[in-house]
Amino acid sequence: MISLIPRKDIPLALTVMTPIIAIALTLIVGAIIFATLGYDPLQALYQFFIAPVSRPDQIGDLFVKACPLIIIASGLVFCYRANVWNIGAEGQLILGAVFAGYVALTFPGLPGWAMMPLMVIAGMIGGLLWAMIPALLKTRFNTNEILVSLMLTYVAALLIDWIVRGPWRDPMSFGFPLTKMYEDAALISRIELPGIGYLGQLHWGVVGALLLAVGAWFVLSRMLVGFQVKVMGAAPRAGRFAGFSPSFVTVMVLGISGAAAGVAGMVEVSANIGQLQPDISFGYGFTAIIVAFLARLNPLAVIGAGLVVALAELGGDSAQIALGMPKVVTGVFKGILLFMLLAGETFNRFHVEIRLPKSAATKVSAGQN
Amino acid sequence: MEQLILTVILTSVPLIFAASGELIAERSGVLNLGVEGMMLMGAVSAFAIAMGTGSPILGMFAGAFAGALTAGIFAFFALGLATNQVATGLALTIFGTGLSGLIGAPLVGHAIDGLPQIHIPLLADIPILGMLLFQHDIMVYLAVIMVGLCAWVLNATRVGLIIRAVGDNHDSAHALGYSVLGVRLLAVMFGGMMAGLGGAYLPLVLTPHWAEGMTAGRGWIALALVVFASWRPWRVLGGALVFGGITIMQLAGQARGWTIPSQFLSMLPYLATIIVLVLIARNREFALANSPACLGRIFHAGK
Amino acid sequence: MLLFFFEQVQTAAALRPHLSEAFMTARPRTKTSTNSAKKAVVAAPTHQTLLLNASGIVKRFGNFTANDDVSFSIYEGEIHALLGENGAGKSTFVKMVYGLMQPDSGVLEWRGQPVTITGPQHARDMGIGMVFQHFSLFQALTVAENIQLALPAGESLSGLSDRVRRMSAEYGIGVDPDARVHNLSVGQQQRVEIMRCLLQNPSLLIMDEPTSVLTPQETDQLFDVLRRFSDSGVAILFISHKLDEIRALTSRATVLRRGINVGTVDTDTRSARQLAEMMVGEMVGDVARNTAPSDGDVLLEISHLSRPRPTQFATPLRKISLQARQGEILAIAGIAGNGQDELMEAMIGEWRAESDGIIFLKGLDITHAGPAVRRNAGIGFVPEERNGHAAVPTMSLAENNLLTSHSLDGAVKNGVIDDDAMRQAAADVATAFDVRLPNENSLASALSGGNLQKFVVGREIAKSPEVLIVSQPTWGVDVGAAMFIRSAMLELAAKGSAVVMISQDLEEVFMIAHRIAVLYDGHLSAAMDATGLTAEKVGLLMGGSAAGKGPDA
After folding, report:
1. Which residue among A290, B244, B282, C25 is least packed, with the fewest CB closer than 10 Å?
2. Quick check: C138 and B165 CB within 8 A?
3. Is A269 on the interface with B (CB under 8 A)?
4. Which domain holds residue B9?
5. pTM for the full model?
């Protein structure tokens, strides 16, 4: 029997320690699982978390992997702070990529200084429009945004599949579902650092992601609209008392996170793939949810959290090569991490008492570090 | 044509299992988005045990057990520690997908004997209908039986009444002395068992080998199916056939040169689900009569 | 559902022919109808068997004594009222009878034997049933299923349905076991709750403020049902603050005031006025207060504000009109649950009327303005609930200050919050209003109730509003803070603002109000000059009696 007793106030130390403890527990549980399945746990952990960043150029790749996560999570933070559960970032990402692709493929002659901004805007619009569907259904009909945004993810995946196999298929692609390659103007180039040269695949999109996270932090903590979001999530009645509109906040946060996801889609395609294909995202929209939670819904922390989770993703690649583990095993770490973070939230907000059923009143009070 | 119908029936079996189980969990008020993860754990366990013991029936039980166990993880966090159900379910999906891949890695490339077909005496000899309905493996029949069981338990037994009550108003149920968390735990474990069975069907019958992620999103479709069926077991059966039928329709359509792109047909189940969601939210009477009011809400035994 | 209602109506009408008039006209509860109904009560059991006896019941919560040596008895088959204002101790007492709490001292005797009632199940086994004010049924389930869940397992649904039908016919309750609860009106749902209790064969049925959610017709139907129970030997403990209903339905009433039993009396022989006086005590408007109600300008005017019930347990507002003048405090007295929340929401602007011309600030029509616009125009608001409504518990005082000043000058520039200005403003409020903080950046949740209330009130007064509208300004607040807040409001009025204060604390009303109006069942009485006004007269209005004009018969 587990009983939960609300805490009066939350010690700051606990708030900071929670993500760290969560990460530590994740590593431990992961190691146990690996050992059980016959892999050397220490080797596995090394391959997962140390090997992928042991060379400088790999640091660049780490940022590249983290880039879409940071962008999407920066937007999701707004949603979750307002208690709006946008689960459809994956779909919004796809629509953003598609809209940006429209610009790139329909106007291939545009010069770089016009192409890039237009594509970014197109990406934002695509993601935003896709997110407006659950937003409007929620504000007009009070429909549950979780299931709607989730369903739309699959619709989006089917949409891009059709577009790439049908109307936008490159006639020269020998039947493969690929669009034409983007012109150079539509691609995001790698960063050439003075004296160092290229740092892995590090590209300018990463800079954009970092700026976006900082910008998100500014809006959330320093601007009135950010305040509205926080109030609506923490105490909706106080928000209405203040004169804030629940519908406005809902539409705004979904719009922001949709636009962010759309930009992430555009960046991913332009930086890493260079054309549209049916699979442009590898679950970034869902992984970003974990990043947002790891960052405890703080946009600045999203950067760090994105890097941590990206490390696990890179680790999956490295472990596959070195140990023959299937790539999908990063899901084990990501899943456990999210479980631990969620449990950490509970320990933050409640005193947890575990009463063992048979012994009389043996109380193990947990959660006080 | 008969072949098409057969395929529809077979491909709908995993959906029927998973959706019926999730339906019970949701009726008790719990939204478990981890269906895909539970199905995959069921699939890999069923395959591993079937391969190891040579018995697909044991594999079936293993799948059920694994699914329930996986659901237990969800229950520990979402019910025991009162974590956010949506996030916990997602974590379960990601975890289950990853762990099943890890467990199944050494099993790739092996084949097993699937479940045998059972010919029901006399009935199996009826022309056409006999082949379509009475020559299936045991899990097909089990699926239909489970749907009936769910319907009966929910509507005609006290246990079902309590489940529905807990999903409708967990505070009142608690005030009447019922253990909300206890009921939900049972419902969630049942949902996991059923998802495990649904996942197990894939390697045991449909494609007798293991591939990571072999459920290919069926768990999400099952979630949609529960809504589409307005949380009623018999409608799950019908809906699963419809959803399955659509997938088949697109293959048949392509062969016949239909002009509607197959992807749009595939979108239909998801779009239909969205429409049902809007209908439920708009019409208070429809909502109250059809969806559990406490779905996804965390229960705090306060006061 | 309509058919079902008509069936019910016909049953009731057949039993009480004169009541059918009631369905033709919406008439106020006057003496004529109650007299005719009373004739039935005379046929009460003549042998007065003692059922429940309370002796010296005491219950304390910390320093607060909810029940102070309460003693009275209830007899078999009697309909007994428990009358009192909020906080008088009625709910506390009844919770002890139902086993939800234990008395600190004193004895409860059931049929002559002392008992300790360990919990609601024990109470039910003994024969005590309770219908709560906010009943909670399972909306998606049928009536029979709802009842079945409350009873021990074993009985089949069809058997239960038959029992329900029989009992329903016997007592004229009119409940259809196959109906889904969400299709039933509130009155019908209440009868399902009653039926649930009835099927456990109670000897005592406790009803907590049952009529606040009912229409007049439903109230009459309920009273018919209760009289039939009483005739068959079931005692009823009827908690209410509505004087006319108590006099119409019950034979005796126990009046509680601040935890003390002021007396148990026959309701036949007491006038509404006498009951009111017992309920509120003797207070008179302070003649010594300096300023008489001003004839200053009307700053805030509300004209015929009507609002339908927002939820089934809420109170509608019926053509409320008031005027708040410069320099005065207008108090709106009344017992909780008579429309205070709904009125406050309407005044804040969280709910807005469809038509024009209902709320005016210095002649400006603000009917359709939202809270921020109303604030900009010069109104300050302090709602009843400081945790989650007036303030966000998990935010700092500076942020909470922003809650009501974000639309004013200086708070926000180009969308960016001026953090320093907000921090300074919050600090200024804290200093001026003696708000004690654990440390500088405290969250609102770290403050004590009194300190948070001082902040929430001070935050508004610091803006020098022309009109201050406040609900329950000192509820749950320590004495020192309460006095501080009341002085602050008097000061604000003295400077020329108008203050509208909704308060359930009659002492507070008499302490600082210049004029007093009473809210009852969504109606607001005319405002009366506080000087020389007796509490008993206010009590009459709080209890729903038509404004006493001359002696009651």
Report:
1. C25
2. yes
3. no
4. 2-287
5. 0.86
